[in-house]
């Protein structure tokens, strides 16, 4: 009896220690899982908080169907620019010329369609061609001559703004034909009916939610296959349900306004296409490799010059797309079009999680960053906030986003 009791006590203590260690390990794993992508996950929380804040401050006006539609129409071209800008930033570069390229491509389209009387699609194709040429111009100087992108695109900002003034002869051109205006102001509605709402918009929203769920589930299975940590299944389901609820609410509001904006379809196609390019193609992986460690990328056989060249060609193409959307939205071309657009696109990329030093960032993150800027701008406009205060708030948010990136890097370095 006396010899058995101590043994039982020792076993009990060992079991308690084992359970405590397991609990500590489990807690550490959960903490690591929750903090591994703090910047990327935190941006979604911040977005929801900002939307809720302005909904409260504006008495719900910011979430009205008409206002949500206006946000999509007014900021779509900035989101298009943010897609290209985040790729440029991931590779460790910057592009200061996109606003001037937006103005130039819109001017080219206006001259051909309004002055020369060509079909609207001819003006759009010419604008895209000019955007590609501009991107190749930047890519040549950056990739093959070796001039830093900051200097090349700063020169491009001045050069293409001057060309815009020459093309337009310092005057504005308007209006575009109705077909051209449909690019940024058109809607798809009434295709499958609906009583007081557009059922087609709700169908597209449901398809988007289903696609998100399937993609997330496949990513989860892949992580499990490679023995990578994943969130618990109930947490995964909760995340998909939350995203689905937000998307369907957004679709419901659009369905009760004017239906599905054409420009939203264009933006969705671009987001999906570039999401695949950055995550699932050799080119995308090479972009991340160049931004993450240039020397290692070169030693691994990455054709750095070629990749950098096509990065800027792509940026020129997306700038032309944004130029077409902006000129369609404004129903004309102006010499001052696109002013400060580059700063909005850069801010969207950094707020969405891109790192200052390159190698980090996602297309979806840039979209969320752009939407944060859009919601803040729209909300402050609804509240009647002075333009100067709006600029102060935007600058402060951008500064906080970059400071948070630097803080995370220092903390990660200290942990090693």
TrEMBL record:
- Which residues are listed as membrane-spanning? 43-63, 75-94, 101-121, 141-160, 197-215, 235-252, 259-277, 307-326, 347-376
InterPro entries, per the entry: ABC_transp_permease (IPR001851)
Start and end residues of each stretch annotated as Disordered? 1-20
The record gives the membrane topology as: Multi-pass membrane protein
Top-rank taxon, per record: Bacteria
Q: Which CDD domains match?
A: TM_PBP1_transp_AraH_like
> What name goes with this protein?
Xylose transport system permease protein XylH
Source organism per entry reads Pseudonocardia aurantiaca
């Amino acid at each position: 009896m006396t010899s058995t009791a101590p043994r039982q006590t020792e076993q009990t203590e060992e079991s308690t220690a084992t359970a405590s260690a397991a609990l500590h390990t489990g807690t550490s794993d959960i903490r690591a899982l929750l903090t591994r992508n703090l910047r990327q996950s935190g941006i979604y929380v911040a977005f929801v908080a900002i939307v809720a804040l302005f909904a409260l401050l504006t008495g719900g006006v910011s979430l009205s169907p008409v206002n949500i539609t206006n946000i999509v129409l007014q900021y779509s071209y900035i989101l298009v620019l943010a897609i290209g800008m985040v790729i440029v930033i991931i590779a460790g570069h910057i592009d200061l010329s996109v606003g001037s390229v937006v103005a130039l491509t819109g001017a080219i389209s206006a001259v051909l369609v309004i002055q020369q009387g060509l079909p609207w699609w001819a003006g759009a194709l010419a604008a895209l061609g000019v955007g590609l040429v501009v991107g190749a111009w930047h890519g040549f100087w950056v990739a093959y001559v070796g001039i830093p992108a900051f200097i090349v695109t700063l020169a491009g900002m001045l050069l293409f703004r001057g060309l815009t003034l020459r093309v337009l002869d310092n005057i504005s051109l308007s209006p575009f034909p109705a077909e051209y205006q449909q690019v940024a102001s058109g809607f798809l509605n009434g295709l499958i009916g609906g009583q007081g709402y557009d059922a087609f918009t709700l169908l597209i929203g449901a398809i988007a939610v289903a696609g998100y769920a399937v993609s997330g589930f496949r990513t989860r299975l892949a992580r499990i296959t490679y023995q990578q940590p994943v969130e618990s299944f109930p947490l995964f389901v909760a995340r998909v349900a939350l995203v689905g609820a937000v998307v369907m609410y957004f679709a419901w509001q659009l369905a009760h306004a004017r239906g599905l904006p054409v420009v939203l379809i264009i933006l969705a196609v671009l987001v999906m296409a570039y999401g695949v390019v950055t995550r699932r193609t050799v080119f995308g992986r090479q972009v991340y490799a160049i931004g993450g460690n240039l020397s290692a990328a070169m030693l691994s056989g990455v054709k750095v010059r070629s990749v950098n060249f096509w990065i800027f060609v792509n940026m020129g193409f997306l700038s032309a797309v944004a130029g077409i959307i902006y000129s369609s939205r404004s129903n004309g071309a102006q010499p001052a079009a696109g002013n400060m657009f580059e700063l909005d696109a850069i801010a969207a990329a950094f707020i969405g999680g891109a790192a200052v030093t390159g190698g980090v960032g996602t297309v979806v993150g840039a979209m969320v960053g752009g939407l944060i800027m859009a919601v803040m701008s729209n909300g402050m406009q609804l509240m009647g906030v002075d333009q100067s205060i709006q600029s102060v708030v935007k600058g402060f948010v951008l500064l906080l986003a970059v400071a948070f990136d630097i803080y995370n890097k220092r903390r990660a370095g200290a942990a090693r």
